[in-house]
């Protein structure tokens, strides 16, 4: 072992320290590779012995995640009020009364596939390598963490060089308990040296230099032995399931990225580049979810847009001095490049773990309290008995800063059912902001159609005193030998367009658009509107707010009173929804032309239908 393990990682010929960053999928991959490249006959785990049985049982259930929780041995924090003492000031009395008033937080070990320590235990159990948990038993665990370099660097830099580079910036432990833990683990390693020949300790890179120092002091008989440090009385840790919706608070990586690591492990795929390629897969999965949910309403998410989004993610990561993006960076880029709805679907996909137990599968079945999952939050958890406890991680990664991003969430089925139940089917109205937007669209389509009509009357002439409607480059080059400039003259279009058709889904399936009606203008700036759309009562998006999807619409502006085109017997000769709209527009239009916007140009049948009313599309 001494010939292959780098000198910087060896305590002596029998003990190797592997410095890692907790909660990093890149370091978990590095840990597995390191254990495959070198032979060890013992794994030292930086956790107390009381955690060994529940942690190893939980590791056997991976990829199903769980949490091993240890409450302080004494949960009672009630102390009788101090008797009044006139010699104490108000400040001293308050300090004495409030001292130790807060309960000690419970400590936990996340059974996360992307935790390096969990990966080491998992690999050791698979190879039948003995495991020894060597940390000090404590009730009041104090995490020791700080801001660390991006773990992506270890893909290109050897671990010993990475550790040596950040060694000058590693602060010494600031509290006595952490220093005692370093001395205790060093002393436990000296005891294991008497039994095993090749020992591996996977520990935080922040603990690595101080364990080396404590071990060096022990070799010179200046350190503290196991007998000098006392283990506290602790409660028995318990293993719990996790509410799948709160796995984001348990995992060091995004749940989706963690799923990719487990999939690669199960299918024997290469997972070396998942930290980067996983972001691409996340966007592709988010796009599929987005298209499945919105259908025809979804905007086209082209490869070009995805590449722009990835470029934006990279730039934001570099601004934040990171090489790999975090969740806030990904969602911010998706929101600003592809819109709120796409960002919402990416968020939902990113927080889903493929191997988690889905809640609500047996909602009517009684579940014992011991089997009920706990719900995690920011440094706290709600237990099955509904108690809320503070939490501290025994495998802490770099500090996390929580940020708020404004996204309009989708209502759940319960809310939609309640809104649908309270809906009054005998009264409805359109949403004024949406009315304004569709009127602006109608105005734009009409202007564009009038411009197309005027193109047939365009002509060119020699430049004299004005460039008119712009220089005609084609005719200028054609007559270059004349040394003259030709300009375009666009005469105003003749006539007006009072009918406008918009076909969003053609050919339209009548079963998808059962809502067919004609709306009259509420004021002089609105059009007479006839349309076919989906049933808004089937998609409630808010209390008293339903969402309908246009299949096609006809606008008459200035508004005129007409019969309901869906009940007008004069239009019964039409066969499809689009033909009925076209026939109604041609019948009620007072101009010779009807503007039409559709995915495809009008075919011969539609043109013949327009000629029946002496109109042109």
TrEMBL record:
Write out the ranges of the annotated region (Disordered): 73-104
Acidic residues bias: start-end ranges: 89-102
UniProt name for this protein: Uncharacterized protein
What organism is listed for this UniProt entry?
Rhodopirellula europaea 6C
Top-level division of the source organism's lineage: Bacteria
